[in-house]
TrEMBL record:
NCBIfam families: tim. One of its GO terms (cellular component) is cytosol. The active site is at residues 99, 169. CDD domains: TIM. It comes from Pseudohoeflea suaedae. InterPro entries: Aldolase_TIM (IPR013785), TIM_sf (IPR035990), TrioseP_Isoase_bac/euk (IPR022896), Triosephosphate_isomerase (IPR000652), Triosephosphate_isomerase_AS (IPR020861). Gene3D superfamilies: Aldolase class I (3.20.20.70). One of its GO terms (biological process) is glyceraldehyde-3-phosphate biosynthetic process. It catalyses: L-erythrulose 1-phosphate = D-erythrulose 4-phosphate; D-glyceraldehyde 3-phosphate = dihydroxyacetone phosphate. It is found in: Cytoplasm. It is an enzyme of class 5 (isomerase). This is Triosephosphate isomerase. Substrate binds at residues 12-14, 175, 214, 235-236. Keywords: Cytoplasm, Gluconeogenesis, Glycolysis, Isomerase.
Length: 255
């Protein structure tokens, strides 16, 4: 945690979720009480097919809703793509960009991720920019070098704490049940904080830095207590309301 930074717990449903799962979104939205809402922001990013219904379910609750990607343009001849403006039109407030699965599956490089983040910001969304090293990069001692390069290449100039959130997701920790040691996470987040503060000054000091990769109810408290970890980006454990809410609960007794 970072004093004076409001934590964000974000759920990324990835390519999961059918209409029959809308009850999970409703359960999450309806379970966020005033005490928890006062302490943290809680965000859910369902697949695009459920986005508009999700924002309707979240209306008049503290649940925030976002998307998992956006295009670099706001409209045009891009079959199958969805723009940041369309996400905002569906009342989404966030867009994840540069998730490692998109970097791998769709060949998205840092320049593309930066353009997507810029498109999100231009549509008044907050961009959650994902970065993280592969297993091979960690084993060869290049983690911080990779994070520095990705921050430089993926985060737009002029980013502020309002417009950008950074999610550190070691690729090898995603969906594997493995997590870095608390010391390794602390080192990575301290590095990101220094880098962002050097580049963005006071805004970099306030930017939210999430940890993602096998966050579960059982390890959330330990992970969220690490210095400069201002929340979580949760994959698998966000699919069930009871698990996602248990992760959010890690904050109830803190602050
Ligand atoms: O966006 C979420 C991350 O990729 C983490 O996924 P996971 O919690 O299933 O490891």
């Amino acid at each position: 945690m970072t004093p004076d930074i409001r934590p964000l717990v974000a759920g990324n449903w990835k390519m999961n979720g059918l209409r029959s799962d809308l009850d999970q979104i409703k359960a999450i939205a309806d379970s966020i009480d005033a005490e928890l809402a006062e302490k943290i922001d809680i965000l859910l990013c369902p697949p695009m097919t459920l986005l508009y219904v999700a924002t309707a379910l979240a209306e008049d609750t503290a649940l925030l809703v976002g998307a998992q990607d956006c295009h670099t343009s706001q409209s045009g001849a891009h079959t199958g793509d969805v723009s940041a403006q369309m996400i905002a039109d569906c009342l989404g407030e966030f867009a994840i960009v540069g998730h490692s699965e998109r970097r791998t599956d769709h060949g998205e490089d840092d320049a593309t991720v930066k353009a997507k983040a810029q498109a999100a910001i231009s549509a008044d969304l907050t961009a959650i920019v994902c970065i993280g090293e592969t297993e091979e990069e960690r084993k060869s001692g290049r983690t911080l070098e990779v994070l520095g390069r990705q921050l430089e290449g993926s985060v737009p100039g002029g980013a502020t704490a309002e417009t950008v959130v950074i999610a550190y997701e070691p690729v090898w920790a995603i969906g594997t049940g493995l997590t870095p040691t608390p010391a390794d996470i602390e080192e990575a987040h301290a590095f990101m904080r220094r880098t962002l503060a050097d580049r963005y000054g006071a805004e970099g000091e306030k930017m939210r830095l999430l940890y993602g990769g096998s966050v579960k109810p059982g390890n959330a408290s330990e992970l969220m207590a690490i210095a400069n970890v201002d929340g979580a980006l949760v994959g698998g454990a966000s699919l069930k309301a009871v698990d996602f809410l248990a992760i959010c609960e890690a904050y109830r007794t803190q602050h």
